[in-house]
């Protein structure tokens, strides 16, 4: 016989079956006991099914007993009955297994036997199945993968290759990589903002949708829309079936939401038309972790592909900037239904947008960036949360480390929009920059400024005093030069007198 392991059963493994002549139960080809036997219809000789199949494959149509033609038939029942009376010692008896098993249960036992050898993936030695778990749990050569930093290392090298510091360092590298990717995405988005604003589709100009939802017109905003609906944002939940895949396209402050349940498409209006697909904001209306496949095509040829996880009720920006395409296909893939679709999604390890990060991670990003880069990236954000996080950067401008280009950026791009009531300026290395900075403020409206703090300033010119006197709402001026401090509050005459006295 040959079991699943294709190991023959020799007759000396038969135990306690003296009433059965095992010689009559041998296969004429392998000379071991028959295993899953079949019989030649002409000569009535039985063979192991594996043995006769190999024979016929090498000798088509021929029987080992030289019959004119081999015709297969079912094994006679008396042979099957005799085989069923046999008691067989386990193949792994040489490894220590002492069990004797009925013929019909032999294959199952040998596939599960605790004495069969298995190879350790670390040291490559053979270990009995019953000892395998204990061996691998302590084998020094086994490779381990850290679930936190994904570092692969051998157990024996854990003390040197995967210490806690190394693990944290690897996690930091991965976090920094993700941060850089998100920062690049944000930078690209800011560069594209003017063109996006001009061509942004919000679905707000569509006729008011009823509660049953409407198809987006075949031709809308110069594009052809296929299998995409729209409905009022407030009616989205009650209008959709609970068991469908529903990605939704949304826009801030739009009363309408576009959605689709199957493969949908957006195409150029004309046969030879092309367009640039910059970005879309998408979320899952009923599902968590849905995979959304987005493909760009030109002349029916796939030219771009992007897949992202769409989260329930959590809009995310997908920045693509695909140029010169004539068709975009949106295909929802697998997903998980959100429990009851009530609570907002909880902890999620996938980061798809900068605002998905917690405050402490955003602050860590800021620490890795130069202050002017923090302002460049976040100052004009529409997020109140980001504004609160960078308040310290907005009110404490350190000019000594800035290049001239960065200095001009602060003056030209940031100061005109500064609405904070307090501002602190510091310059310990290049005092002239502070004066230059403040001299430019003559041209800028700082109507909300109540408190001004100047640090590491060696002089204040008369022109600055004149400018300060014109700031009707300025109530508090503090000037620091080393250990010397001059403070003026509330009364404008006092303010002017203190400023002149210091200059």
From TrEMBL:
The keyword Protein transport does not apply. Keywords: Metal-binding, Zinc, Zinc-finger. It comes from the Eukaryota. Residues 27-64 form the RING-type domain. Residues 85-141 form the SIAH-type domain. GO terms for molecular function: zinc ion binding. The keyword Oxidoreductase does not apply. Residues 351-402 form the F-box domain. This is Uncharacterized protein. It comes from Rotaria socialis.
């Amino acid at each position: 016989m040959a079991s699943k392991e294709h190991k023959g059963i020799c007759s000396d493994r038969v135990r306690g079956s003296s009433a059965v002549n095992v010689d009559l139960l041998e296969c004429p080809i392998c000379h071991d006991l028959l295993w899953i036997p079949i019989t030649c219809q002409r000569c009535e000789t039985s063979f192991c099914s594996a043995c006769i199949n190999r024979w016929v494959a090498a000798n088509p149509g021929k029987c080992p007993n030289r019959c004119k033609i081999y015709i297969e038939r079912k094994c006679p029942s008396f042979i099957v009955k005799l085989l069923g009376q046999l008691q067989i010692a386990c193949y792994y008896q040489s490894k220590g297994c002492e069990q004797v098993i009925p013929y019909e249960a032999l294959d199952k036992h040998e596939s599960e036997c605790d004495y069969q050898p298995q190879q350790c993936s670390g040291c490559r030695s053979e270990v009995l199945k019953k000892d395998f778990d204990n061996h691998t749990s302590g084998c020094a050569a086994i490779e381990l993968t850290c679930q936190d930093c994904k570092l692969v290392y051998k157990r024996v090298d854990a003390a040197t290759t995967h210490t806690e510091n190394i693990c944290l360092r690897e996690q930091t590298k991965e976090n920094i990589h993700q941060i850089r990717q998100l920062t690049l995405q944000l930078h690209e988005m800011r560069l594209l903002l003017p063109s996006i604003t001009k061509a942004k589709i919000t679905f707000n100009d569509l006729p008011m949708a009823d509660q049953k939802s409407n198809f987006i017109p075949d031709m809308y905003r110069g594009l052809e829309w296929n299998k995409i609906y729209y409905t009022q944002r407030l009616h989205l939940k009650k209008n959709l079936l609970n068991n469908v895949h529903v990605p939704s396209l949304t826009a801030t402050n739009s009363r309408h939401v576009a959605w689709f349940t199957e493969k949908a498409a957006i195409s150029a209006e004309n046969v030879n038309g092309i367009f640039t697909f910059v970005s879309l904001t998408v979320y899952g209306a009923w599902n968590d972790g849905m995979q959304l496949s987005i493909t760009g095509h030109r002349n029916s040829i796939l030219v771009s592909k992007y897949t992202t996880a769409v989260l329930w009720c959590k809009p995310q920006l997908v920045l693509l900037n695909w140029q010169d395409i004539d068709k975009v296909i949106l295909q929802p893939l697998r997903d998980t239904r959100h429990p009851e679709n009530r609570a907002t999604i909880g902890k999620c390890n996938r980061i798809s947008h900068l605002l998905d990060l917690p405050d402490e991670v955003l602050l860590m990003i800021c620490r890795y960036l130069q202050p002017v880069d923090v302002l460049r990236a976040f100052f004009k954000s529409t997020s109140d949360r980001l504004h609160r996080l960078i308040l310290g950067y907005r009110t404490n401008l350190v000019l000594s480390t800035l290049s001239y280009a960065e200095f001009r950026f602060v003056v030209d791009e940031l100061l005109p929009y500064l609405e904070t009531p307090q501002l602190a300026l510091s310059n310990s290395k290049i005092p002239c920059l502070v004066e230059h900075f403040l001299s430019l403020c003559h041209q800028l409206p700082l109507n909300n400024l109540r408190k001004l703090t100047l640090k590491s300033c060696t002089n204040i010119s008369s022109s600055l005093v004149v400018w300060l006197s014109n700031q009707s709402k300025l109530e508090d001026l503090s000037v620091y030069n080393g250990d010397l401090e001059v403070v003026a509050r509330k009364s404008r005459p006092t303010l002017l007198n203190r400023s002149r006295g210091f200059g």
